[in-house]
Structures are given as structure tokens and as C-alpha cells.
Amino acid sequence: MNDQRPDPDALLARIVAEEARAARGRLKVFFGASAGVGKTYAMLAAAHQQREQGVDVVVGLVETHGRRETEILLQGLECLPLKEVDYHGRRMRELDLDGALARHPALILVDELAHSNLAGSRHPKRWQDVHELLAAGIDVYTTLNVQHLETLNNIVGGITGIRVWETLPDHVFDAADEVVLVDLAPDELLQRLKEGKVYLPHQAARAIQNFFRKGNLIALRELALRRTADRVDRQMLEYRRDQSVSAVWQTRETVLACVGPGENAERVIRSAARIAARDDVPWHALYVETPALQRLPRRQRQRILARLRLAQELGAETATLSGADPVEVIVEYARGHNLFRILVGRDRVRAWRSWRQSVADRIARQGPDLEVILVAHEETRAPSPVKGGSDASWRERFKAPWSSYAMSLLICASTALLASPLHSVFELANIAMLFLLAIVVVAARYGLGPSVMAAFINVVAFDLLFVPPRFSLSVSDVQYLITFAVMLGVGLITAHLTTGMRYQARVASRRERRSRALYELARDLSGALLPQQIAEIGQRFAAAEFGARAVLILANEGAELGQQVLPAPADLPVDLGIGKWAFEHEAEAGCGTDTLPGSPLLYVPLKAPMRIRGVLAIEPRDPTDVMTPEQGRLLDTFARLIAIAVERVHYVEIAQTTTLKMESERLRNAFLSAISHDLRTPLTVLVGLADSLLIARPSLTPDQADIAAEIRDEARRMTTLANNLLDMARLRSGTVLLNRQWQPLEEVVGSALKALQSVLAHYRVSVDLPEDLPLLELDAMLMERLLVNLLDNAAKYTPSGTAIGIGAAMPSADQVEFWVEDAGPGLPSDKAEAVLQTLERGHEAQAMSGMGLGLSLCRAIVEAHGGTIRVQARGGGGARFVVTLPRGNPPTVDLLDEAAVSCESS
Amino acid sequence: MRILMTTDTTAAILVIEDEPMIRRFVCRALKAEGFRAIEAASVRQALLEAATAQPLMVLLDLGLPDGDGLDFIRELRGWSDIPIIVLSARTTETDKVAALDAGADDYLTKPFGVAELMARVRAQRRRQATTGTPPDNLIAFGDIRIDLARRMVERAGNSVHLTPIEYRLLVYLATHPHGVLTHRQLLKQVWGPAYAERSHYVRVYMGALRRKIEADPSIPRHLVTETGIGYRFVP
After folding, report:
1. Of A294, A550, A775, A788, which shows the fewest CB atoms inside 10 Å?
2. pLDDT over 90 at B15, yes or no
3. What is the complex's ipTM, to 2 decimals?
4. Do A744 and B220 touch (CB under 8 A)?
5. Are residues A211 and A262 in the same domain?
6. What's the whole-number mean pLDDT along residues A836-854?
7. Per CATH, is B12-130 categorized as 3.40.50.300?
8. Chain A partners of B110 at a C-beta cutoff of 8 Å?
């Protein structure tokens, strides 16, 4: 009963999946048992319905096969132009994926989901196109026949005798948001067939006639219905999980398919996929590469790798591990990944090796807790390829250079020569030992072929030269047959052992070389300081390890793939478009992948810890070659190392600029504080001394007193100037921390007026601030400075006795503005432009002269407060400087507080 | 007023300033005014002099070579309440506020004139004489009269209505004339410690009070703003 509630992790995963699905388009599949049941018709009818509801429907690609009723339905729907592809001189038409993405309709119709695209398209399969459309948020309607489903493919093949090569991975079908079964009774379908309403390609008419037998149709219909029922069943299960309706929650049993070199590996994979799909569990496919398997000819290894890819397409997580004993690796992997059901192919029965335990038995013995499922052979296929493969492997084993054979011949001859004078001295048995020694030496040095040859030669020589009757091949004593057998056996065993050892040594040295190469790559990369250097190091490594040419395309600052290719491509046909695709989708593209496999280059995204740094474009030696797992891993490591190096270089650059910035900041601050201290002290002294003169006894003459007063005033002016400069520098450097507090504007205005008391004494100053002006968040010192500057400015350019006004208003709900206006002659025309530039555009050309500095400072202060400042001509002459500040969110002064406080006090 | 301007040679003022030129003219000005000036250039020396020479007042530069002027204020306030006037640069409002909160009475921004300095010194001397509640419970300045016993405020003979907080604010300011009171000090004294960080309260109430007390609230005569620091009451 503890399984009553759904696993929270599973729920979370479902929520995440649902979120991902919400952003994606929805896929609706019109599913049928065979051609002719009316899938396309149903799809078009549904599309019409959607269009009537105002949905933006576009036909991406629909095969009408010249059927009238379908063509009529196409009318009234917007059809996207098809892309013409030149294929072996024939004009073929394909879905225009880029056109569809650019058009971006709400819903697009794409017929025949299982269709294989022509070579040269972006993806090899149409369902991958559909995938991209869905990822772009476009809903897709499509059609599918049951025989195209990957896991049902061989079943359907078995029923109908026709194998379809265009298949669709089941996970695509399972991931569809909706599946509509389009059903038609077999009799009706046959009737339609007779009436010629079903499209039949001409070339395979006979085969197709066979296909449309009633028995077949019933079986196909059953399959389609069943598959749909399975889906519905799973939906029900999911619904129950959703609603937490009491149900039985099975523990997640996962499946492991063991892929071997045998013929039935494909069957194992398909069975595992089916079981996993039925139980809705994830599954893994594992290939263990033993030294013996590594020795297999390349063609056969490619086949195994192709099967792993098939498993991946069917939704498996695949792994390739190497180990001497596959059973051990399998059991360990299964335990490590919690896989309790293991599918293995049945070993081919070998009567003469019946004492050997099968892989399944050994797995069962090593892992008694694991469930082992044996998958039978496919009887339809002859085991001939295996034989061919092993022949090749035998030939491989005998392969040795001619010189080896010559040397062994020489060794045999000299043994015979050496032994012949000893004939009278030694027993025959000891002479046989000499020959044996020669065989061992040859086997150890030159391998299997020469050793077998040496065994034969030595036996013949021994027989000919030493065994009586001498100089004849007749063996009088049967016991020398044993000598012969032993010699041959020793030769074979020694050769086998040494070749095995040599193979191991070779593998080890290859591994060592690879790790050394990687080590050297890492070392070189760690020394690289420029992207260019990284690219060159990468190029060297690619040439040495893959025999390939490689270039880097790096992302720019804005996290977009740049145009620059490093190092400059000699003649590499780099396609930046594919690079961009790989970069944006964070997936490999180009040759050997599912995306634009026709390209001669492979594009690997450079994934670094922080983000994707660019794309590595590599041109494999043989574009048709599938990469072996080791190569794939090596390429992966290679790309990762390059990515990390690029990222490191990027951050080194940032660190350098930051250090530089910090250094200059530090210098500037040191400079500023030095100025402010060193300048202020003598100014203070100057003011103080001038003042001292003024009050000195005996009193100065009036002229002298005037001079002293002037010295004092000039020193004060200089102080103001220095203060302005320092404030300006601090504000410009962006390091100043505003001490902003909520306060009434009135108070700041008051202190500014007080500071300029003596200057403003000759003007009629009026302050008119609205009573309800909200509190403003100001740095009082800076704001006072701003007002002092504006007032001082007004006083400077207007004749004394005129009016200077300070006012404020709230032009909008979130802004407060205040102004200083004068009734002078307005801005002098030669200065007006400069003032405007200084104020409104922050133009500093004039900033350092005269009033420019003061206005620049005003602007900087206002900007630091998040506001703007502008100058207007005032009606009736004069200028008005208007400061606009954000109102912000002023705190309230709670009147209740007063009541509380006053209660306490009384 | 002359009476307070004592020419007693024991009326010493301690000048703590590390710049000899500034120290010199300050001392000269003080001497011209009839005070005895004791010079100190470091915190250590200043503490020594303060303990031995029993000065009337301290003029203190905040930036000293062997320590912070704040340390000196705290140390001195441990055993003496003689007036302290801080001399400091303009850009260091927070330092000034800290010094005032630590117990300094007034401040002067460099560069300052001799006349300004002497005015502050005299004001502090006067304050020493008049601190506390006046004996007749009456405070008068300008055309304002505060009757502390009856909790009444009159302006030019007419009663002014103040809220309890406004009244307490005014009384606190009026009983601490000449010195600078920081926002924090006022909040603590008038509103209570819980309000110490709500400086906008003081500002809003000060505005209201000015409208009731001052002839021209935008250019106040008695309730003067010390920008970024606090307020000063000038009778």
C-alpha cells in the first residue's frame, strides 16, 4: 500500500515534460492500417475544420496521388511551395522546411511521417523535419501507416512478406500528442481498390497486389488497432497516475539489450524496444568490445555500430564499453544502472564446444538477481556473413610480410644444417628438440603463418634427414607422427600466444599513444593565449589523430556564431549555415549525423562549462565512414578540451581588461584624493591667512583690506571650482555612491539659497513649491550642488535686480520636475548651442570651459538620480532649466505614530 | 557678551590639527581673540594635553596621522563634556555625522574663514553658559516665545498651534542652541530610539514647524538646515 502515491520525482519529470511540451507545437498523427484507408482525406477534413475556427493552417506537403476527392479538399487551403531537389537528374519535390519555418503558421500539414528525405536535405528523415517544426512551436498534422513503425516492421514483414524500408522510430509515434486511428473494414478497402481509388505505384504492382490480400489486411488492421489501444491504455494509466486513483505501481523495471557481433543482435534490440515500450520503461543497449571483437574486420564492426545507432533511434541509451570478459562488464553495467532484465541473443549452438557455457548462462550465474531473457535466432537468414567474416579474420591472422617467411625459411635451413653433423652424436629425440626450438623461435618472432610453415618444413626436414630410412619421406615408425603433431602443436600454440600478446601490446601502445596525444594537446592548449593559437593546436591534433583537417568557428561576445574561421581555411568547404545550426541546437551536424549528412564536414559544438563557445568543423578522411566509439570519444574529448581552452582564453582576456580597469580606477581614486587633500589644505590656509590679515591689529588700510578680501574670495572660488571638478570626476567614474534619502525639496532649496545668500542678495528670488509635492529620494549634498550651480548660473547671466524663480510641478503620476528660471536676456545665442549640447547630449567639447563644467556637473548629478535636465526659453525672456526626476515610492509619515508618541510623552 | 569673552590666560583652547600651516593661523586667530592655544598634531598628544591642560574647548581635525579623530572624541567624552568643534573636508558628511553622533558639538567645513571660526567658538562659549532649561521657563528668539511651564508657543503675541511632536522638536532644538543636531539625535530624542532610521520624519516635521515659526520658510533663519547632516538652531 505504500505505493499509493505517485513518485514525486516522476511527477516532477512529468511537469517538466509538460512545460516543454507547452512551448512546442502539438503533433497529431492520422494513423492507419495500410494505404487507402483515407488518412490524408481525414487529415485534410480536420484541417478544414481548424481553418473554419480561424486557425492559420498551411499545407506543407500533401500527396494526393491524383485522387479527385482528396484534391477537392485541398482547395481553399494555403499550400506552401515545395522545394525542388535535383536527384540523379530527376526533379523531385520535398517539403520546404526553411520556408515553413519562415512562414510560421499555427498549423502545418505534412503527409507521410515515415518518409525518407532525398540526400542533400537537412535531415535524412521527414520526422526529423517535423521535429524541428514542432520545436519552433508549430502544430503539425501528419499521416502514418502501421507497417512503418520501427518495432512492428519485421512483424509486418513476416505477415505480408514485404519489408518496408522507410521506418519511423516508435518514440516519435509515442511522443505524438494525439493519434487518430483512421479505420476501414478490409472488404471496403478491397472494394475501393477494385474501383481504383487506392494509389498503387506502377513498378511494384504485383507485389502490392499480394500485399492487399484480405488476410494481410485483417492482420494489419489488428496491429493498428492494437497499437492504438496500447496508446489509449497508457493514457488511461497516466490519467490514473494523475488522479492518484488507487492503482498498482510497479517498480521501474528497466531493460538492457546486449548487442553482440552475432546476427540476431538486431532482433535483440527490437525485442528490447518492444518490451520497454510496452512497460513504459527506459532501456539501455550495451556493446562490449573485447580484444577479439576489436580484431574483427572493419565492415563488421561498422555493422555493430550501426545497430547501436538503431538502438539509439528506438529510444535506448547506448554505451560501448571495453573489457576482456563481456559477461563481467554486462553484469556490472546492469547493476550500476538498475537494469534488472537483460536481453541476450541465443548463442549459436556449436556441438563441438558444447562444454562451454553460453553467455546467458554465465550472466545468470554471475548475477542471480538478474532476469535473463534469451532471444531466438532469425531462421530466415543464412549465417554466411559470419563465415565470411571469420574467413577474413583468419586471413588476417596469417598475414605476415614476405621477409618473415624468408627469415623463417632461413632459420629452418640453418637448423637442419646445424643438426646434420650432430646426427651421430645425439639421440634422435634431442635433435627433434633442436627443430622444436627453431619452431618456437619462428613462432615467437614472426607469428602464425611463418610458424605453421616452419612446422611443416621442420617436420619434413627432420623426417628426411634424420628419421630412418634417411633421405626418404616414408615414416617407418609410427611414433614419429607424434613428433610431427607435437611440433605443429607447439608452433601453433606459441604463435597464437605471441600474436595475442602482440595484439595486446599494440592495443596498449595505441591507447598510450592516444592518451599521450591528449595529454600533449591539453598541455599545448594550456599554454595558448590567443584563439588563433588554439585553432592551430587543434588543427595539428586533428591531423595527427584523425588524419583530418579541422577549423574553429568561434562565437562572438553576443553569444552568436561569428563569421571568423580559425585558422584561415585553406580550401575547406566550411558551411557557416550548418555551423550555426549545430551551434544553436547544441548538437552535432554534418556528415555522419542526422542533420545534413550530405555535408563533407562534421560540425561539433564546443561545449564549455559556462556556455557554447563555437563550433569545431572537421573533415573526416572518409566521409562514408561511421566513427568508431573510440574515435567518437576521442573527438568528444578533443572538442571539449578545445572549448575549455577557448573559454579560458576568453576569461583571461576579461580578467586582463578588468585588472587594467581596476588599476586605472585605483590610480584615478588615488589622484582624486590626493588633489582633494593637497589642494584643500593650501586653500584653507590661504583663506585663513587672508582672513587673519583682515582682523589683524593694527588694522590694514582700506586698500590693503580690499586686497586681502579679494585673495580670500578668489581662494574660495577656487575651492568651488575644485569641488566641482572632483564631484564631476567622481560622478563620471561611476564610483560615487549616492547617499539618497527621502526629503522634501523645500529643504534642499532652502540650503542652496542660504549657501548663495550673498550672491542672490541683489535679486528678487521667489520660491513657489506646491504644498503637496511628495518627498523625493535625493542625495542632499549633490542636489544642493545642482541648485547652487543653476542659481549661480542664473545670477551670472542676468542683471541684478531681476527676478529668479524656483518652482516645481508634477507633470505625470510618476514624475516630479522642478526648475530654476531667470528673467534675463535668455541664453546668449553663441552659448545656447553649447549649453544645449552639454545638457542634453552630454557633449563635453565645451564642458571644461566656463559655465560648461557647472552644467556638465548638473547633468551628471541629475543622471545619477535617474532623471533628465533640459533648458527652455522662458516666455517673456530668460531661460528656464528644468530637472525631471522619477517620483519613486515615497514613504508615508504615519499620523498615527504621532498619536502614539504623544501618548507616551504625556 | 563681553563678559564671556574672557581674557583669562587660563582659558585655553586645544587645537588638534596635523597641518602646521592651518594650525598656525588658527592659533594666531585664537590668540588675537584672547585665548591661549594649545597645539597638538596627533591623537596621542591631544589626549595628553586634554588631560593636563584642562582646555575650555577642542578644535579637532578628523584626519590625523595616528588615528581617527572619532577615537579622540569617544575617549574625551568618557571624562569631559567640553565643547568639541570638528574641522573637516567637505566630502566627508558621514564622518561628520559620526563625529557629531559620537559627541562633537559643531563642525566647520574646510576651507573656513577666521570670522566663521571665531563665531563658532564664541557660540560654543555662550552655550556653555546657557545650556539647560532657563530659570524662568521662558525661551525667546526672534518674535517667538516659548513658555515651557504652560507648554505654549507664541509668535508676535499670537498663540501658535503645534502638535505634540512639533512642540517637543522645537523645545529640544531651542534648548540646544548653536550646536548641530544630527537627524539621528533628533529622532532619538523626540520620537524615541525606534525611529532612529526614519530621517524623513524629522524632515517632514521640520518643514511643518518652519511654516509655523519662520517668516520665510524657504530661507529659514532659526531652524537652519545643515545639508546632509542635520539641523542647527540659531536664536
Report:
1. A294
2. yes
3. 0.85
4. no
5. no
6. 54
7. no
8. 680-681, 683-684
